[in-house]
Amino acid sequence: xxxxxxxxxxxxxxxxxxxxxxxxxxxxxxxxxxxxxxxxxxxxxxxxxxxxxxxxxxxxxxxxxxxxxxxxxxxxxxxxxxxxxxxxxxxxxxxxxxxxxxxxxxxxxxxxxxxxxxxxxxxxxxxxxxxxxxxxxxxxxxxxxxxxxxxxxxxxxxxxxxxxxxxxxxxxxxxxxxxxxxxxxxxxxxxxxxxxxxxxxxxxxxxxxxxxxxxxxxxxxxxxxxxxxxxxxxxxxxxxxxxxxxxxxxxxxxxxxxxxxxxxxxxxxxxxxxxxxxxxxxxxxxxxxxxxxxxxxxxxxxxxxxxxxxxxxxxxxxxxxxxxxxxxxxxxxxxxxxxxxxxxxxxxxxxxxxxxxxxxxxxxxxxxxxxxxxxxxxxxxxxxxxxxxxxxxxxxxxxxxxxxxxxxxxxxxxxxxxxxxxxxxxxxxxxxxxx
Amino acid sequence: xxxxxxxxxxxxxxxxxxxxxxxxxxxxxxxxxxxxxxxxxxxxxxxxxxxxxxxxxxxxxxxxxxxxxxxxxxxxxxxxxxxxxxxxxxxxxxxxxxxxxxxxxxxxxxxxxxxxxxxxxxxxxxxxxxxxxxxxxxxxxxxxxxxxxxxxxxxxxxxxxxxxxxxxxxxxxxxxxxxxxxxxxxxxxxxxxxxxxxxxxxxxxxxxxxxxxxxxxxxxxxxxxxxxxxxxxxxxxxxxxxxxxxxxxxxxxxxxxxxxxxxxxxxxxxxxxxxxxxxxxxxxxxxxxxxxxxxxxxxxxxxxxxxxxxxxxxxxxxxxxxxxxxxxxxxxxxxxxxxxxxxxxxxxxxxxxxxxxxxxxxxxxxxxxxxxxxxxxxxxxxxxxxxxxxxxxxxxxxxxxxxxxxxxxxxxxxxxxxxxxxxxxxxxxxxxxxxxxxxxxxxx
Lengths: 435, 444
Prior knowledge:
Helix content of chain A is 41%, strand content 17%. Chain A has helices spanning 56-63, 75-82, 107-119, 125-144, 157-160, 164-167, 174-178, 182-192, 208-219, 269-283, 289-297, 335-352, 358-375, 377-391, 396-405, 409-417, and strands spanning 15-18, 24-29, 35-42, 86-91, 96-103, 198-204, 242-248, 255-261, 303-308, 322-328, 424-431. Chain B is an alpha+beta fold and 444 residues long. In chain B, the strands form two sheets. A six-stranded mixed beta sheet of chain B has the order 1-2-6-3-5-4, sandwiched between helices. A six-stranded mixed beta sheet of chain B has the order 9-10-8-11-7-12, sandwiched between helices. Chain B is globular, with a radius of gyration of 24 Å. The termini of chain B are far apart. Chains A and B meet through helix 2, strand 5, helix 3, helix 4 and helix 11 of A and helix 2, strand 5, helix 4, helix 10 and strand 10 of B.
C-alpha cells in the first residue's frame, strides 16, 4: 500500500461570460454522453426572506413552476419531461436553484424554459393558494409527520444563532405561508430574480459557441434590473454553551445534536477546509474516531454523523455556517454519556494528534467522493454554478480534491481544538411517544 | 397566454447514447464477472450480487444481522483494519440484503482496484462474525428497528407487503425485535457459509479501467472463493385486491395511502406498454395523478406510482401522502384516475411524452459509472442481455395507445389493487369506510 496517495487531478473546459443584462454564464462542454444539464442559481435563499415571511423563498421556488410569459401552469414540466428530461429546484440558506437534465437535442428548449420564467413568471391567487397547500404537505411529510423531522436542520439554528436571517425556520410557519400574497411574490421576484442576480450554467453535450448564441437569443432581451446588495449575515458565535431540548412526539428514541461555528467558507477558505476533513476524521467509516468508539466499541449510539453545513454541501454556503455532529441513541443511554464520549474523543484528537496514515486515508476518501459527484454532468454543473455565484471561480470544482489533500495534520488538530463545549449549541431531542 | 408569448423551440436531431461494451468471464467457481470501461473520473464502481432468497422464517432477522456484521472482521483484519485498508486506497464497501440477494456495493479510486478485490475476497471467504460484534449489532438493530417502526412510510410499506404477499418472504421486511434477539453468531456464520457462494453470483465493474486486465485481477483475487449453488425461493401467489386495510396512527397529520398489485417483469412482452401506462398515470411529475391531486387540488406533495421488481414477482405500487382531512377525497380521485386510465385510451400526446421520458431516463441512468453499474447489475441478474438497453427504447417507441390500454386494464384497474391507509382512524375512519369495506389494524 502506498504511503501517500496521489489523487489524479481533474481538468474541465470551463468558460465564463456575462450578458449585457448582467446574467453570468458558465459553459462546460463534455461530449461523452448525449446529455446536457442546465442550471440557474438565483442569489437569494431563506436567509434573505423578511420577518413575517418565513418560508417565502421556498414557496416562491414552487411558484416558478406555475407558468410564465409563454407557458401555462405545468407546461414547463411537460416540455422538459416529454423531451426525455427531468427537473427540480431547491432552496437553501444562500441560494435558490432550478435545473434540468435533458437529452442534448432538447438544449434550446431547456434554455427557453428557464429564460421564460426569468423574464416573467405568472403567479395568480389560484396558483399561490394551490402551492401553499402543496408546501404545507411537503412540510408534513418531511417534518410534522416524520420522526426526527427537521432535526437538527430546523431546530438547531434558533439555538446557535440570534439574528432572524440565521435562526428562523426556512421551511416556514403555516401562518406566514397562509398570509403570503401575489403582491409579495411580485415584489420578491422584482428584487431578487434580476438577471444580474443569477448564474446560468450549461454543462455536457453541447458546443459552447452555439450555446452562447442560443443563450443570447433567449436571455439577452430580459431587461437589466438593479440587483440587491447582499447584506452581511455575520453575527458573533456563542461564548458559553447554549443548551435546549426539543420534544418530538413521533420519535421513539432520543438524539442529540452539537453545532459549532466554523470559519468563513469564502473569506477564510484555508481555515475552513480543515473542518471538512475534521468532520470525516470524526465519523467517516468504521475506523473513524466516533464510529469506532461510540457505535462499535461502547454501543452508545445507533448512528452518528458529522458534516459542515446544515442541508447544503460545504461549498454551497457562505458565512456564517457550522459543523454539526448528530447522534441517535437508545433510551437506555443518556445523552450526557454520549456527549461526554464525543468531547473526550475531540480532546484526544487535539491533545494527541492524528494517527499515522489517518489524514491521508480520509483525504483519499473525500477525494473519491468528490470525483463520483463530478462524474455526473448535473452534479458537476450545479457545483460550477454555485462556485461561480459564491466565489466567481467555477473551475475550483476540479481543484477541490487536491486542496482537501493539502490540508495538514496541524490544521486538523487546530480545528479540533475549537470544538469546545463553551463555543457550541447542544440540542437534545426528547422522544415524546413511541407509537 | 398573453401577446408576450413566444414559440417553444423544437427538438434537434437526437444523439443516441453509446452502448456499453462488456468484457465477461465466468470463473471456474461459477462467479460471473462483467467489466466495462467508462472514463470520466479516475474511479471504479463495483456491485457484487449474491442470491440470498432464504425461505425459512428466521432468514429475515439473520440476514439483517449478517449484513450489519459482515465487515466486522476476518481472520487477518479487524473491522477497523478493514476500514483503514479500504480508505487507504480511497475506497469503501457496503453490504446490504433484501428478500432476493446480498449486495456489496463498492467504489474506489481506480488505482485501488486490486486492493479492493483482495479485501472483497477476504469478506466473502473469511468473514468471522465475532461474537462481540454480533451481540453489539443486535442491540443496535433493535433500536434501529424501533426507529424504523416510528416512520409512517415504513409502517405503510410493511402493511402493503403483508397484504400483497401473505406468508411469503416478500410479505415482510421488518422483523420483530425478539426475532433479532434470537440470532446468534453461529447462526450467522452458518447462513454465510450456505448462501455467500460464487455459483449464481454476479460481479459488475464499471469505471476508468482496462476491462481485460480487471477480469484477470478479479480472477486472481476471487478464484479461491467456493461453494455449492443455492436454490431460488418459489414465486409467491399473484396479489389480489379487496378490502381496504386501515392502520391506526393516532394524531397523524397525514394519511399514507399505498395501493399495490401485480406487475410485469422487464422480460415480459407487455413490459414496455405497462411502463408507459405507469408513467402516464403517476410515474413522473407530468402525470395525471400529479396534475390532479397535487397541482389541481393541493392534497399532497409528492404522489407517485412505480413498477417494482423482485426475483420472482413484479408489482405496481402507488404511494401518496395526503393531509388527514382530505383522505377520503384523495382516495376518490385516485380511484377516478385509475378507473379512467383502465377504461379509456391515453392520448397520443401522453404516449409520446411517456416514451420520450422513459427513453431519456435510461440514457441518464446509464450516463455515470455508478449508474451504469447499478443498471447492469439489475439487468443481468434478471437474466436479460445488455442489448436490452438498445431494445427497450425500440419497444417503447413501437407501443400504441391500444397496447397501453390493454396493460392499464390488467394492472391499473382499481378493482385489482390492495389499499392501505396509515392514518388517524378516529379522523379518517368514516370517510374511508364510505368508500370500501375496511379492516382496521392497530399500529404496532
